[in-house]
Fold:
Amino acid sequence: MSTGSLFSEPATVASGKGKGQAYEPLAARMRPRSLDDYLGQEHILGKGKPLRVALESGLPHSMVLWGPPGVGKTTLARLVANVCDARFESLSAVLAGVKDIRAAVDRARMDRVQSGRRTILFIDEVHRFNKAQQDAFLPHIEDGTVIFVGATTENPSFELNNALLSRARVYVLKSLGNDALRNVLDHGLDDVERGLGSQNLQVSDEIRDIIVQAADGDARRVLNLLEVASDLATDGVITREILEGVLVDNLRRFDNHGEAWYDQISAFHKSVRGSSPDGALYWMARIIDGGADPLYIVRRLVAIASEDIGNADPRALEITLNAWQAFERLGAPEGYLAIAHATTYCASAPKSNAVYRAMAAAFEDVRSNPSYEVPIYLRNAPTKLMKDLGYNEGYRYAHDEENAYAAGECYFPEEMEPKRYYDPSDRGLERKISDKLSWLESLDQHSSQKRRG
Structure:
């Protein structure tokens, strides 16, 4: 099976590096030749998916392919032409202008008249065209002169005209997962005809994993890294030292799934819990520099906000969630500041694990006791039958009580003695919460004494 699903159509030059042959990069040689060779994007190209059915039926339509670099936008456009036996015309919005668009349309019209073939007009980086340039496609899409396929890394709803979007369907292409990238890498190593199979390279699983991580969802980058590393492997072995020379960033950025990785996460959590903003910042930087998804740190901070801070400072949860949203909107590196903001706040905040302990104790009681019935006075009575059966009878509506508190009321199953799970600390806001709960407890005791008296 051909593997390089994300690259351009076969070039006319010869592949390889042999004498008398024009050089063609490994990423170009490993391009797919059919839809079955195209790895990833099963959500739009899987068996039975509308786009797959349309292409296999020879009925292509105008579309916009939106996704990050290296996910197969150009390759898919070329496959559309191949599968549908259409002529392929390509322009780059970085270099082309309205004059080039008109010339491409004229060629498409002439070919349509002379041979009856349809033309796929592929526009790379289409978001770089201005409104006038985008409008130039509209009449030719409308009359069927071209089937428009645009590729963009930017959100089409922000960058493309509504008139153009109304004539094209948007398909979102996703970064390839590590399994797909590993498949691309393995076939690049094993394929004798187009890949590096004839070199019999020795590449350990560890090295393969590092290359896949370094590619960050980009199949083209996987094969480019592999090719450069193979050129440096004079003895046929790709080593860590070779990868150090290949990777622009330090190798440790892509070696983050071993025991040391989990040790760093543990150190980060313990630094925040231990109220050391400086230590927490150091481990945050180590983890991000190690190539981890920064959102992993934010997710850990959200957990810390409830587990180690809780009601001592409820703002911690809000700040960590805001950091999550800020990073998703800003990305790297600006978004790192939001993570540092949340990290230092959580590390500096008063600490309490009272909520964590209360939840654990409640779950322990639930799991170790029978499923007791809800007391009848705590049940809702939305129907006449339920009212006749006494549901909600005797329930004390707290807002109608003095201090908006039904002193002495029990909210546990009748078979259970009331428990105190939540025991606030004397730190931060929990000190006030503790005072409030103590006061409510005194009201309960007074109510109980009145009933006994």
Q: What stands out?
A: The radius of gyration is 32 Å. The longest strand covers residues 87-92. Confidence is low (pLDDT under 50) at residues 1-20. DSSP finds 21 helices and five strands in the chain.
